[in-house]
Amino acid sequence: METPQTLLFSPQHLWTKATADGAWEAGITDYAQNLLGDIVFVEAPAVGTRLNAAQPCGLVESVKTGSDLHALINGVVLEINQAVIDSPEQINDHPYKAWIFRFKADNDADAEQLLSASAYDALTDA
């Protein structure tokens, strides 16, 4: 799967994009879901949770292992995607459409510190 050029990425294998209402959506990358295998459980951060960049904020479990979700940038969780919580295999099927949570960034400019698609590909040797 090609890495979407419109997204930003963390070294911890999460993606994000700004939405029209000023929030940000976050999910795990195709690379991460591929390493994990069949995803069977997602623990998203609760609405209202403070996010601290690069700190664990949730969990994704597969038949092979579990992996922490790390906050991309500082902010506050606005919403979780209940459809993905109920059917976590959506992440395997469509990793760049299956967002896990939406958040409000403390400072949108912090996103400039995230990786571009080409930088993320270089990190993962994709």
Give me the secondary-structure topology:
Blueprint (H helix, E strand, L loop, with lengths): L7 E2 L4 E5 L5 E5 L1 H7 L2 E5 L6 E2 L4 E7 L3 E5 L4 E6 L1 H5 L2 H5 L7 E5 L11 H8 L2
Antiparallel strand pairs: 1-2, 2-3, 3-9, 4-6, 5-8, 6-7, 8-9
Q: How is this structure best described in words?
A:
By secondary structure, the protein is an alpha+beta fold. The chain has a single domain (8-120), classed as RNA polymerase II/Efflux pump adaptor protein, barrel-sandwich hybrid domain (OB fold (Dihydrolipoamide Acetyltransferase, E2P), Beta Barrel). It has helices at residues 30-36, 82-86, 89-93, 117-124; strands at 8-9, 14-18, 24-28, 39-43, 50-51, 56-62, 66-70, 75-80, 101-105. A hairpin with a 3-residue loop joins strand 6 (56-62) and strand 7 (66-70). It is globular, with a radius of gyration of 13 Å. The mean pLDDT is 97.
Labels describing this entry:
single chain, 126 residues, alpha+beta, OB fold (Dihydrolipoamide Acetyltransferase, E2P), 6-stranded antiparallel sheet, 33% strand
Shape: globular
Termini Cα gap: 9 Å
Rounded Rg: 13 Å
User: What share of residues is helical?
Assistant: 10-25%
Report the count of strand segments: 9
Query: Could you report the average pLDDT, rounded to the nearest whole number?
Result: 97
The parts where pLDDT drops under 50 for at least 5 residues are none
The main pleated sheet reads as: 6 strands, antiparallel
CATH class: Mainly Beta
CATH topology: OB fold (Dihydrolipoamide Acetyltransferase, E2P)
Number of domains in the coordinates?
1
Q: Strand sequence of the main sheet, in spatial order?
A: 1-2-3-9-8-5
- The H/E string reads EEEHEEEEEHHEH
**Which homologous superfamily in CATH is the superfamily?**
RNA polymerase II/Efflux pump adaptor protein, barrel-sandwich hybrid domain
Secondary-structure-derived class: alpha+beta
What is the level-2 CATH architecture name? Beta Barrel
Give the count of helical stretches: 4
Percentage of residues in strands = 25-35%
